Structure formats: structure tokens, C-alpha cells
UniProtKB/TrEMBL annotation:
Name this polypeptide is given: MBL fold metallo-hydrolase
Annotated Pfam families: Lactamase_B_2
InterPro entries: Metallo-B-lactamas, RibonucZ/Hydroxyglut_hydro, UPF0173_UPF0282_UlaG_hydrolase
Gene3D superfamilies: Ribonuclease Z/Hydroxyacylglutathione hydrolase-like
Start and end residues of each Metallo-beta-lactamase domain: 9-170
Amino acid sequence: MTATLDWYGCATFRLKTQGLTLFLDAYIDRVPGADGPPGASADDIEDCDYILVGHSHFDHIWGADRIALRTGAKVIGSYETVRILANAGVPEDQLLPVSGGETIPLGSGVSVEVYPALHSCLWAGYDDQNPSFDCLGDKHVDYFARRACESDLLSGLGKLSADIDVHMRRSDQGCRGDGGTLCYVIATPEGRLFFKDTPGHWSGIMEKIDADVGILAASGRANVDGEPIQGALNDFLVSEAEFLGLKRVVLCHHDAWLGPIFPGGNVAGIREEFAMRRAGCEVLELEYVDGFDVFSGLMV
């Protein structure tokens, strides 16, 4: 039975495998002018068994409550994710709180392994239009300065246009930061799919994970063991592929998910870096909702 992957923009995907339907994140609704399937909304989703939420920011969790309530899907996520969704009316028996180290059987030979991860460094400078650029500095920024910078960034988004202001207020579910970022390996009879919706990791954890295909976030200043990478996003993504032993990378979070405010990243440099350092690893940018055959052509 073929495993297929549909990209809904930002870091949201639908995985169909072994008769199960999984959503990886749930942020489908967009502001006018943003990339994404025309007219798509979380309210349109009729079939879902599980939702895996990487972290609790609005551009990852918003929509999970509506999908869960409409379909009866169970949601796997951090304790902050579970708090938000419980407040939104999702029944407790549909909520599976995790923090890393858990393996959850989903049925039909499919399981999910949960690992701790890190969010990108929102307090540190970066350039999405040039992922080959070596970003330096911004190290050892203390807790209070980080929180202040992140708060300014998020509060500033709603002041940029009327459409975005409405969008931000609708999607504000009272998250307390990222809530503890997680990454997942979905183990299927066809292969192992890694999913992480923001560029940050603990090196010691990543080197113990293996997967065949990886969904990796290609936007922002990468976070390595709690500090911003001293180098380029390209380097970070190749290092993740090396840690995991990936044969194929599917990029995410690089599109214009919030309209002209985030015009989308330039991923050409990422392709070039992989070609130089990990030529055997295929790098893909999916079209929206195109039913991509995840493990096709791979020896797994």
C-alpha cells in the first residue's frame, strides 16, 4: 500500500499510509495573498485519524482543534499543545500529551516515535533569501532578552496589514511560546519518515535517530543545542540529513505562508549544498496537495 504525502503549505502535511490518515501540523487557513491551495481551510478536512503537532505556535497548531472535533482524530503534541486544544473543546480522550521518548502504536503496522527538538532562534538574525549566508553572532543571549525579542516579533506581525491583523487575532489561542518543540519518526511498513517543523535540534538526540525520508524546515536561524548556528542554514540542513541517514529530503516552511510579509525563501543554495556534500540525497519542493509517493524509488 503506497504512502502518499500532501503539502498544505507552511509545515503542514497529510500523510496517508496503511489505511490511516495523519496530519503533520494543522495550519491550513491562509491570509489573502499567501501561497497555498486556493480556498483550503481546516474546516474542509473530513478524514483524519491522528494529528502530530510539532510545536504550539499558531502557524503549526491552529486548525488542529477543528480537525479533531470534526473527525474524532487523536492529537499527539506537547503538554502546551494539549492545554490549548482542551481549552478549545477537544475531548480529553482525543489528546495524547508527549514530551519525547514515547513510541505510540497507531495500528496497521504504523507507529510514531517522539523526540525532543528545539525551535529556531527567533531572537537571532538570518536571511531567508540567502540560505548560503553565514550568520554569525547572537550567541549567549540571556532568557529575558530572548523572550523580549520573540514577543516583539509576534506582536509586530498583526500591525503590518489589516488582513494579517485579523488573521493573527483569529489564530491567537493563547500559546505560551512554542510549548516545547518535538520531532517525530513515523515508522511504516514501507519506510521511516522524519518530521520536524522548525530548524532546531539537540545534536546528541539527532545522531541516535535514523530515517529514510525527512521533512525539514528551510526557514529561519537554525538552533544547535540551544544557540544560533554560526554558519548557514544550508550547512544545518545537510548536517541533519547526515545525522539521520536520509535518502530524500522534503522541504517545508519556505513558502510565502503569510503573504508578502514572508515572501518565501530561496532554496537554490540548499540544493547546491546537498549536491556538493550529500549528492545521493534527493531534495524536493512539493507542489501543494499533489499526492507525492513518499518512499517511491528508495531502497528501504
